[in-house]
Amino acid sequence: MLENLLKGKRGIITGALNSSSIAWKVAEKAHAAGATFTLSNAPIALRMGEIKSLAEQTNSEIIPADATNMDEIAALYQKSMDFLGGKIDFVLHSIGMSMNVRKNISYDSLNYDFWAKTLDISAMSLHKMLAVAKKLDAISEWGSVVTLSYIAAQRSYPFYNDMAEAKAMLESIVRSFGYHFAREKKIRINSISQSPTKTTAGSGIKGFSEFYEFADANSPLGNASADSCADFCLALFSDLTRMVTMQNLYHDGGYSTTGVSYEVMQKFLGQ
Q: Residue ranges of the alpha helices (H) in the chain?
């Protein structure tokens, strides 16, 4: 279905850790659709993950980069353009981490140093990647940048902790930087608000399994899988969505606009 959709396009895909990662699925499908790209993650994540096999599978180059470090981001773009032979047509920003979540620190007792790191890694990193790309003129006209968000940016989910603020900031950056990039470079920036997904990062959140089942029961189409999210990412990378920018696009089986489903009511009533 996606054959040749991205033929001739060059990209950077960040955040692939293992085969359950959305970024991993995006890389597999982008390769099948004819794209060439580099893979990037923080050095520590690369040591923990299985990305080498993905690079071999997709004929990609791995370029370690800390997405909070401007010099390393600049090196990522330059090395990517050298390896791929030209400017970048698409970027996947799939980056997020909270030490408060990892250490089970409650929202009303946040470690503020950890919180600052959460915002830097999970949101400001997008702004930095965009700012460096603009300075280097590294992204082609009509290029596409996609980042991954979650509905906790708009609604209260106690288990999501300080990542909720990070996603709210991330979506604001999409709108704000999206305006400037669209006017000056015809470059699109969008975020995808994805269903709870059984990735390494998602599964590490306290109460995730229970909420996954709730969201699945409350979504008319059920939870959107990592695989289907990858399909949506490719659509946004492609020329089919040239006039879509500055949007937060829900990819959640209808969860975001469903008040309550029959299935949830029946479970609540014990039927």
A: 22-32, 43-48, 51-58, 70-84, 99-102, 112-119, 125-136, 163-185, 200-203, 208-218, 226-237, 262-268
Structural domain contains residue 212: no
Phi, psi of 232, rounded to the nearest 5 degrees = -65, -40
- Tell me which residue range forms the domain holding 183: 10-205+224-258
Domain assignment of residue 243, yes or no: yes
Coil, helix or strand at residue 248: strand
pLDDT (tens digit per residue) in 106-154: 999 999 999 999 999 999 999 999 999 999 999 999 999 999 999 999 9
Chain-centroid distance, C-alpha 158: 21
CATH, residue 100 = 3.40.50.720
Q: Total domain count for the chain? A: 1
Percent of the chain with pLDDT over 70: 95
Q: Is residue 265 assigned to a domain?
A: no
At 149-207, the pLDDT tens digits run 999 999 999 889 999 999 999 999 999 999 999 999 999 999 999 999 887 666 666 66
Query: Contact 79/38 with Cβ under 8 angstroms?
Result: yes
The predicted structure's pLDDT at residue 233 = 98
Structure tokens at 190: 């969008």
Question: Does 71 fall in a domain?
Answer: yes
Q: How many residues does the chain have?
A: 271
- Environment class of 205 (CB within 10 Å of its CB; exposed 0-12, middle 13-18, buried 19+): buried
- Residue bearing the bigger pLDDT, 160 or 209: 160
Task: Note whether 205 and 159 are within 8 A (CB).
Answer: yes
